[in-house]
Amino acid sequence: MATTDVLKQEIIERFGTPCAVMDLDVVDRNIKRLQSLCDEAGLANRPHIKTHKSTFLAKRQIKAGAVGITCQKLGEAEVMVDAGIEDILIATNIIGAARSGKLAKLQERVPLKVCADNPVSLETYAEAGRSAGRPVRVLIECDTGQRRSGVETPNEAITLAKIVCDDPWLEFAGLMFYPPLDGWPATQSFLDTAKDGLASLNLIPEIISTGGTPNLKNIGTLDGATEHRSGTLIFNDRMMIAAGVAEVQDCALRIFTSVVSRASDNRGILDAGSKTFTSDLGGLEGYGLILEHPTAQIHKMAEEHGFLELSECDKRPEIGDIVRVIPNHVCVVVNMFDQLVVVNENRIADVLSVEARGLLV
Amino acid sequence: MATTDVLKQEIIERFGTPCAVMDLDVVDRNIKRLQSLCDEAGLANRPHIKTHKSTFLAKRQIKAGAVGITCQKLGEAEVMVDAGIEDILIATNIIGAARSGKLAKLQERVPLKVCADNPVSLETYAEAGRSAGRPVRVLIECDTGQRRSGVETPNEAITLAKIVCDDPWLEFAGLMFYPPLDGWPATQSFLDTAKDGLASLNLIPEIISTGGTPNLKNIGTLDGATEHRSGTLIFNDRMMIAAGVAEVQDCALRIFTSVVSRASDNRGILDAGSKTFTSDLGGLEGYGLILEHPTAQIHKMAEEHGFLELSECDKRPEIGDIVRVIPNHVCVVVNMFDQLVVVNENRIADVLSVEARGLLV
Lengths: 361, 361
Hints:
Two copies of one chain form a homodimer. With 361 residues, chain A is α/β, with parallel strands linked by helices. The first copy, chain A, has two domains: 137 residues, Lyase, Ornithine Decarboxylase, Chain A, domain 1; 210 residues, TIM Barrel, CATH 3.20.20.10. Chain A is built from twelve helices and 17 strands. In chain A, the strands form two sheets. In chain A, strands 1, 10, 11, 12, 13, 14, 15, 16 and 17 form a nine-stranded mixed beta sheet that branches. In chain A, β6, α8 and β7 form a beta-alpha-beta unit. In chain A, α4 packs parallel to α6 and α8 packs across α9. The radius of gyration of chain A is 22 Å and the shape is elongated. At the A-B interface, α1, α5, α7, β10 and α11 of A face α1, α5, α7, β10 and α11 of B.
């Protein structure tokens, strides 16, 4: 039997399907690659743990040279602090979580970096800083085209930085960007104007943070940037292949799933649906790439059924076959699993808990 | 303060946002309504627990008159058996989970009902029955238009029923349908033909099972049906409102989420994205109905950001506001939470664990 068949046999006997399987060799290669890209650009590497939500992998990234980590939720940061990680940026306005008192409690334990695009967030952070007895370090989130969060003009950024400086429980740490792929020139001009304005107030942003895995194409092109946040690269996925920043062999996470129905010649059903893969299309056709049958389309999802369209397949999967799927968007798929099975040279090496999964607050 | 404002204050202080809040009064009304609909149609009620994944609610449904429950995953059934529930139908081909030995172990504990649309599933079930020392009861899954799982013709159903009868470790229990909304006449003709064929082999299906919450419109119209499986009705959602089977006041689950950014006049950001709401549109525009701002559109999702488009709003939400959202598809949203906060008359009564969440196998 080929080693992959042996692995499939082991997976089905120990875990059943669907099962999330992570290749540690590929992960290590990806961790190293991200670190090299940041090193070459002269930037600190602050990987985003939203993708893996695992303290084991966060520590592995730090050991490989990362300066710290990025979290998206306060609950994620709590898990990481519990594991001994101290340099954490929470890259979102966290009003709803902070008001529960969780931010103050965590700030008592480690000095956090948070971000804000409005005065209400700043008030909330100041309250947490006061309650913790330690100022909260704040990056001002700036928008240069994503139209998500972030102030739209350098002037607004400067106004918020001033509020930060005037509050004894806040400390101005810098600016945070998540530029669109084609938005780096606009980001440069935003940054230059903001820096000039800040300088006139004697404010120097210590951190200028950029983000995104597809944006690794642009890394190093923002003059003044000090660090980059990338999440997805550690695992990669079908979206990263489509974005041209990864190949199939760079994808570290595969969903092992069984073909459980073939009601007619051109149709089939997987035992994994939207409660495994989610409904994220990410701009692609179909919900994943089946390695054994790359011309098969996973064209539709019910909660626990993946719908296969097989008319383009020369060789079609049979009922009972186990297939390996590279998901469209790995960050949301990992989030559906409590554990990842770790393989090394096609053998099961470990089972990894997705510790920060489901910590929505 | 209005009682809803008091509740919001309690939620934010005890749990933070986003938070899934379940109204027990509405749940009880919905449980009763489903039971009445089945009673009036002369059908057994076998609610699908995929929606709530809670043993507390499953038992509440049984106490109200349900004959047993439907599960979609073996892992869900395990949790329900642990809680003392014995009459369980697993409504899907479960080859990948069964091969792990889990089916045999559960079958040792309680006599399960499973379903199949192919001989490989039957082999797997027979193996589990043999290993457990107790025959597995099998419903043949029949497709009358969903093109998901299920044999496409009565003849195939009869062939599979024969295989079941010829195997000492299998027992023929009946036929399972999940008719499309407009597919009930086709289902009737399928059923009649299948029953005639089965009769000529002296086989009488004890169970004829239909399913679906929107299909409650058609309940009772299939002559020969014995039971109905409905999941979503216990909570309802925006899809059920659109399907005309529920009103806003019948929706028992609301996501409490905070407005955390308002970077420009027509835009806003919630602290809940696709890792809370999922990306299921369910054929609707936007990702949920905001009760406080029904004309606001949740038009886009990032993992932890819900994008608001506010141009149609007379009164716009402010940063820090907590809003209540009825999700598009409640079954997949509950699956994102480890716990539901139970409220009764707008006061927090309990916290309910979503025990069968994440049991993908």
